[in-house]
Design brief:
With 266 residues, the chain is mainly alpha-helical. The protein is built from four helices and three strands.
Length: 266
């Protein structure tokens, strides 16, 4: 009730104030056109009109409704904020996914480029190896052909040299120089041959003599001899004592291995 009286008091004050202002304004407006006259006091009757005064239960309902509306507004705001948060999260998720996908695509691209470079490098190395191998094979074939050509030339030269030497040798043999050369060797050996006591009256021995250029004796081999060991030793000693052997007048007649026949008849 106290709250209701407090609510009515301002309303009553406002009504009285409006009535007073209306009266003052009325007389002030009419004042210049009338002669001064005595004013008969009028009785002012004020009637309190109270409209739309809510009853306590309506106030309670309004407060409940207001609180409910506020709560609903809060819930709507929360829902809107939650929806915005979810939308923002989705946007952020999509942004991160896009970044992740781009990073993944970049990694795949870089990996593909790396593999491509490695493959190209491997192909380049294989190509270089094949080229080097082909070059090596070609060089071997060229060298073989060159060696074959040189060998043929050398063989031809050797054959020609042999032919020339044989021809010269044949000419020398035909001239009798070989017989003269062998007789000189035989005469020198016979001069140095000292027969041992008790040697057979007739001796016939074949000896192979190895010599080096200059006539130096390198070896003596008794091929056939009817004498004993003492005779054979005397032959070897005679040949070694005769070193160096006489040289031929024509170098083409020189032979590293010569056959000599030694014989004695008493």
């Amino acid at each position: 009730m106290a709250r209701k009286s407090q609510n009515l008091f301002p309303i009553i004050q406002a009504i009285i104030l409006h009535i007073a202002l209306f009266v003052i304004a009325f007389f002030a407006f009419d004042w210049p056109h009338q002669q001064p006259q005595s004013i008969t006091p009028m009785a002012i009757k004020a009637k309190l009109v109270v409209e739309n005064i809510d009853k306590p239960e309506l106030i309670v309902k309004k407060e409940i409704k207001s609180k409910k509306q506020i709560q609903e507004n809060k819930e709507l705001q929360i829902q809107a904020e939650e929806k915005k948060r979810i939308n923002d999260a989705l946007v952020e998720k999509k942004r991160l996914e896009k970044i992740h996908q781009k990073a993944k695509a970049d990694r795949i691209k870089k990996d593909q480029e790396r593999k491509k470079r490695l493959k190209q490098e491997e192909q380049r190395r294989e190509r270089e190896l094949k080229e080097a191998e082909l070059k090596r094979i070609n060089e071997i074939e060229r060298q073989r052909a060159e060696n074959k050509r040189i060998r043929k030339e050398l063989e031809a030269d050797v054959r020609q040299a042999e032919i020339d030497a044989e021809s010269k040798r044949f000419g020398a043999l035909k001239s009798g120089d070989l017989s003269i050369y062998k007789n000189k060797i035989l005469q020198k050996i016979e001069r140095n041959w000292k027969l041992p006591v008790g040697a057979p009256a007739e001796l016939d021995c074949s000896v192979r003599v190895q010599q080096i250029p200059g006539g130096v004796v390198a070896g003596v081999t008794i091929l056939k001899c009817n004498g004993d060991e003492a005779v054979k030793r005397s032959i070897v000693a005679a040949i070694k004592t005769s070193s160096p052997l006489p040289e031929p007048s024509n170098p083409i007649l020189f032979d590293r291995s010569i056959l000599i026949n030694l014989s004695k008849k008493q």
